[in-house]
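Work Package 4 report. The design task specified in the project plan requires that, given a folded chain encoded as structure tokens, an amino acid be chosen for each position. We show below one input record used in the internal validation round.
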């Protein structure tokens, strides 16, 4: 059987269908350990380096179980194709290689319907490679975006398919773990880029958010209320949609809260976050939390949607929500961990203080987020 290719969206579909596939990652051990494809459900994956296939072909092939559907992943595509040809030569009948390499998995966005009725539609765009979520709100022929990634073509195409024009993009904060798409979307679509205090002094070209202000569509529809929630960053904001949904960015996560130490001012930002937690704790328990990140797929519901009533979120994180200020700050300090070196460069890119070519952006954007303040996240990072 001839070697064929597949796309990142195909791999995610196989994962969600619980297809019987084996993922063969042929990158070196260091790159494999740094960032891997992940599935909502258990699957089998092995790592055998491309260089091993070059130098020890027979031995490397023997490490791959016979009779399995093989889906090969590499850095840029060429190595996977090379290994795939070897596998076919050795009698493997169902072998495919990932088009574009691991970066296409890193940039993949999976749309999920959060709410849909005659009045408005709300979508969650899950980015499995980054464990992050962005959002789209549609009313009539207009669309607002929240925390879009740099895969701007996806959002433009999605809006077009829905017959919508992108009118505004909102950032919950100055992202450190991925390069945001709001500035580029504004340039490409004429949409208004809305950002909070984090963007002051940058060259992002944003329109400042105002605490308590209401944003709406041309023909009314769901209100989008701005709520300043400093702590994860000094300019973090939360957006309340139709008094029903809470797009919380990295302030409130389904499991834990956003870490406030990424800016290097742990005590000052931790106090900000503590005060914010006290404020948001008074919001209605029925609000549905839509987080900016997740730690693992166990946080998703049966439809693989990351959305949970605020009351349940508080119950999951009751220790954090019930701490006094002293214990809260100590909790943050106890769970501090070194942030990836790339974060400082990503912040510069998102403030338009530095410009990087496409290859550098891909490099900076690769890898899961490190934004949660939790012992679990610390253990994962150190493990």
């Amino acid at each position: 059987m001839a070697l064929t290719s597949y796309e990142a969206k195909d791999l995610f579909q196989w994962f969600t269908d619980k297809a019987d596939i084996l993922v063969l990652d042929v990158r070196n051990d260091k790159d494999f350990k740094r960032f891997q494809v992940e599935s909502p459900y258990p699957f089998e994956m092995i790592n055998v380096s491309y260089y091993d296939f070059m130098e020890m072909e027979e031995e490397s092939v023997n490490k791959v179980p016979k009779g399995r559907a093989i889906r090969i992943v590499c850095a840029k595509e060429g190595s996977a194709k090379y290994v795939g040809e070897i596998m076919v030569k050795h009698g493997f009948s169902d072998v495919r290689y990932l088009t574009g390499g691991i970066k296409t998995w890193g940039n993949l966005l999976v749309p999920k319907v959060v709410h849909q009725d005659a009045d408005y539609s709300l979508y969650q765009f899950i980015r499995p490679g980054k464990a992050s979520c962005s959002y789209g709100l549609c009313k009539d022929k207009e669309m607002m975006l929240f925390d879009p990634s740099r895969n701007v073509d996806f959002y433009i195409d999605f809006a077009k398919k829905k017959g919508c024009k992108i009118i505004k993009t909102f950032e919950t904060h100055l992202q450190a773990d991925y390069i945001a798409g709001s500035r580029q979307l504004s340039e490409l679509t004429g949409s208004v880029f809305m950002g909070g205090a984090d963007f002051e002094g940058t060259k992002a070209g944003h329109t400042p958010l105002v605490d308590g202000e209401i944003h709406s569509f041309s023909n009314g529809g769901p209100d989008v209320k701005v709520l300043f929630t400093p702590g994860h960053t000094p300019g973090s904001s939360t957006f309340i949609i139709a008094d029903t949904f809470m797009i919380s960015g990295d302030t409130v996560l389904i499991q834990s809260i956003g870490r406030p130490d990424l800016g290097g001012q742990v005590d000052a930002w931790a106090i900000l976050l503590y005060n914010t937690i006290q404020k948001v704790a008074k919001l209605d328990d029925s609000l549905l939390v839509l987080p900016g990140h997740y730690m693992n797929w166990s946080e998703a519901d049966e439809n693989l949607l990351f959305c949970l009533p605020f009351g349940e979120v508080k119950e999951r994180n009751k220790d954090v929500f019930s701490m006094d200020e002293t214990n809260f700050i100590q909790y943050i300090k106890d769970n501090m961990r070194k942030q990836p070196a790339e974060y400082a460069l990503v912040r510069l890119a998102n403030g338009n203080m530095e410009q990087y070519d496409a290859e550098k952006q891909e490099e900076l954007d690769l890898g899961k987020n490190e934004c949660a303040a939790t012992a679990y996240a610390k253990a994962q990072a150190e493990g």
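The CA atoms of residues 299 and 306 lie 6 Å apart. Validation will be extended to a larger panel in the next phase.
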